[in-house]
C-alpha cells in the first residue's frame, strides 16, 4: 500500500500585521500534532532566504516574490509536504495565477481593519514609518490591496472578532476532507 500524493498548499493572505505568520505557526503546530508534515513559507523570511531582503517593495517586486514563493510551494507540495504560505499577496493577478497553477491551492483571507493592524505593528513599525514619510510601497496604504475574489475562507481577525485559536478551528474544519485524502492509503 502506498499513500495518495494529493497536494495541499494553504495560502494565507492578509495585509501587513493581519496575523498571517501567527496563524501559520499555530496551524502548523496543530497539523503536526495529528501527524501531518507541514512547512511554512513566510513572505518576510522568504525575502531573506532568497537574498531579496534589500529588494524593492513596489508592486512589480511584490508580484515577482509571490510567484517565486508559489514555485517553491509547488515543488515542496509535490514531495508530500503540506505547505502553509503566509504572505501579503493582496494582488489579484497573483491570487488567480496561483489558483490556476498550484495543486491543492486553498486560500485563506485574513481580513482586518487598519486600527487593528496599526496596534499590532510593534516590530517593523511599518505604519509609523509610513506616516513619517520614511517608507513607501506599503500594501494597503499607497499600494492598493486587492481582496481575494473567491477565497475558500474569509476570516475577520480584527480585534475582538476572531481569535487565533478560533481561526485555526475554522481553517481545520474546512480542511478535514483534504487532510483525510492526504492520509488515505491506496492500492498499488
From TrEMBL:
Keywords: Kinase, Transferase. This is Adenylylsulfate kinase. It comes from Trichlorobacter lovleyi (strain ATCC BAA-1151 / DSM 17278 / SZ). Residues 8-156 form the APS kinase domain. It holds the Pfam family APS_kinase. GO terms for molecular function: kinase activity; sulfate adenylyltransferase (ATP) activity. GO terms for cellular component: cytoplasm. The keyword Transit peptide does not apply. GO terms for biological process: sulfate assimilation via adenylyl sulfate reduction; sulfate assimilation, phosphoadenylyl sulfate reduction by phosphoadenylyl-sulfate reductase (thioredoxin). The lineage of its organism: Bacteria, Pseudomonadati, Thermodesulfobacteriota, Desulfuromonadia, Geobacterales. InterPro entries: APS_kinase_dom, P-loop_NTPase, Sulf_AdTrans/APS_kinase.
Amino acid at each position: 500500500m502506498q499513500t495518495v500524493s494529493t497536494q495541499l498548499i494553504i495560502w494565507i493572505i492578509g495585509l501587513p500585521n493581519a496575523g498571517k505568520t501567527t496563524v501559520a505557526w499555530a496551524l502548523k503546530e496543530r497539523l503536526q500534532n495529528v501527524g501531518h508534515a507541514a512547512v511554512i513559507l513566510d513572505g518576510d523570511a522568504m525575502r531573506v532566504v532568497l537574498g531579496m531582503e534589500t529588494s524593492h517593495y513596489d508592486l512589480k517586486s511584490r508580484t515577482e516574490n509571490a510567484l517565486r514563493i508559489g514555485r517553491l510551494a509547488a515543488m515542496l507540495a509535490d514531495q508530500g509536504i503540506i505547505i502553509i504560505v503566509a504572505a501579503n499577496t493582496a494582488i489579484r493577478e497573483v491570487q488567480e495565477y496561483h489558483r490556476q497553477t498550484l495543486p491543492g491551492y486553498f486560500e485563506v483571507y485574513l481580513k482586518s481593519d487598519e486600527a487593528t493592524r496599526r496596534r499590532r505593528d510593534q516590530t517593523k513599525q511599518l505604519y509609523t514609518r509610513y506616516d513619517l514619510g520614511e517608507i513607501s510601497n506599503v500594501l494597503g496604504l499607497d499600494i492598493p490591496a486587492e481582496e481575494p475574489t473567491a477565497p475558500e475562507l474569509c476570516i475577520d481577525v480584527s480585534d475582538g472578532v476572531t481569535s487565533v485559536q478560533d481561526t485555526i478551528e475554522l481553517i481545520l474544519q474546512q480542511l478535514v476532507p483534504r487532510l483525510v485524502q492526504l492520509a488515505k492509503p491506496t492500492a498499488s
